[in-house]
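Researcher: I'm preparing a figure for a lab meeting and need a structural model of a single chain. I don't have an experimental structure, so a prediction will have to do for now. The sequence is pasted below. Please return the structure as tokens so I can convert it later.
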Amino acid sequence: MAVLSKIRERSMFLIIIIGLALFAFVLDPSTLGDFFTSSKVNEIGEINGESISREEFVQELEDYKQQAGGQVSEMQAAKTVWDNILRKKIYKNQLTQAGITIGEADVWKELVNAPFVQNNPQYQTESGLFDESKFKQFLATEKENKTAMWSQWSSYMNQIRDNAETNTYNNLVTAGLGASLKEGELEYLLDNTKLNAQFVYVPYTSVPDSLVKIKKSEVQSYIKSHKNDFKVEATRDISYVQFNIIATAADEEVIKNNVVALIEDFKQSTNESAFLAENASDTSINENFQFKNLVNKETSAEIFEANKGDVVGPYKDKEFFKISKITEISQMPDSTRASHILIPFVGSQRVAADVTRTEEEAKVLADSLLSVVKSSVSKFGELAKTFSSDVGSGAKEGDLDWFTYARMTPLFRDFCFQGKKGDIGVVKTPFGFHVIKIDDQKNSQKVVKLATYSRKIVASEATENVIFRNAEEFALAVSKYNKFDDLAKENKYEPRSAVGLKVLDENVAGLGNQRQIVSWAFGKETNVNDFKRFDLNGSHVVAFVTSSEEKGLMSAEKATNRIRPILLNEKKAALISDRLKGSSLADIATANNTTVRTSNGLTLKSPTLSGVGVEPKIVGAMYNSALNKVVNSVEGDRGVYAFMVTSKEVATALPNYDTNRKRISEARKRLTFKMYEAIKNASDVEDNRAMMYSAN
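Model: Understood. Here is the structure written out token by token.
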């Protein structure tokens, strides 16, 4: 009893211990930090301390993808939506700081004044005037019933608000980007004041690189002091070998022989469409006539010399082996000129909103017009102007000008090309009924209809197995020896690289859209020197992570190529400056084994030194220098200078500087598009979208 009592006393303690043990077992230790900071779980990002929720992002993402109708990829949509959210929040924040609010009244005013709202009969009185109360009632009903229509209207109103905020802010900023007359005067003087100067120039290239040493610590210090220039996103570099699944010569021969075996049965068939289906042709029947110039070049002569019922082939056409049976032979012009009168009806394609006639009514009207023009062809043009809904051709008396066989919809085309000049008739197409008159034809020639059996040239199962085995063996060898490049060269494979992949990228250089590879490269469990085999459509890829760069500042190794030339010139400038001192340019030139140069007519607008090139820093320093004074050791973009301004021709004063003022103002306004990017760059943005798309 004592033992049982003790167990009962400690039961709760045991339950807690067991619970914690189970918790530790099922929970990945790497996620413990996330567990205790779960407040961030539902955030996709942050801007200036304002959270961007996962719910908000996902909702806008789904709305955008729906609007795009499947025409954008997941990553393209994610980027667009993220940028849109940032833009909205940035502009809203800017307006809030300025004390400006876009209210419901502003949105409503914009909405009700939209032409498609004003002109909708649903919201109009019997006299055709817009009734705001009807529109309000319509929206209220849709909102109450939570319909899909209300969701669309709500989205549209949000769009109005967003656009209004953007436009309001841009207009306010633009209004403040003017210029004063004083600024106009200053610009005029700077652009037109001319300097004459003498100078001594010692280029940085005069000091050998070997005399200057650049330490890694100096590169690191430069990065830290220029952080904004060296901020980087997380990147990955990969190398890969692609094993393409390609048919061998033996595979092609087998496929070709299989096609050959069908020739006699194809000749005897009376239903070519059924024959293609029963024998699993990779292409279906083509009911169109074929011109010689559109048929496979290698077989066109044989096809056009063959008789009806003959089978030509086998022949190779791109990735197919084919045999073609001539099912029909005719004569046909290669181009036709025709006129038409289009009579659409409710339900036909591209029909105007004001069309109310039924199909039967349209047919009656078309037949009536046909009767008129058959009895009097001269009336065709006037009738086309009056009745045709094809406004473009109607204005030209129905004339469609010359067109080729493939340009028109099939039934319209067949009438125009299989008929003869002068024929008039009615044809129904998806666009309505057409009263057609064939005006002219040219270049009549032989045409054929072909039933073509095709078999795609693909690798056999045996070939696929060999290629898969090669990829697998290479991957295993990389795993064993960890020498990706060496093993690729040893096996005569061609390794390729994809450098600077970003976490939300989709495309891999040489492979196209391969989000799965990018996602793997950035996975939590993927490290440098890790590899993986990917089975793609038509190939296998063995990928190898060669480099990893985390978000933050660029590493010294990667930044060295950018920074080294800058540091070299800085150190060279110090060495040169010691030699560019003296009271006269002649003495300085002699000490540096060079000559005194002259440059006349210098302006800030055109800061080019004779014999040297563009040097804005030096010309700017000359503008601020006193006349006939030697200025020593001024560092430029190309070298170090000593100079003396010998004369300054100040521009003649103008009675008015309004032209210059306007030019400055217009130039500033043209740069307003950069304003948003500047605000964005100055904002504190945290982008955690990668959490949604990581592989592990």
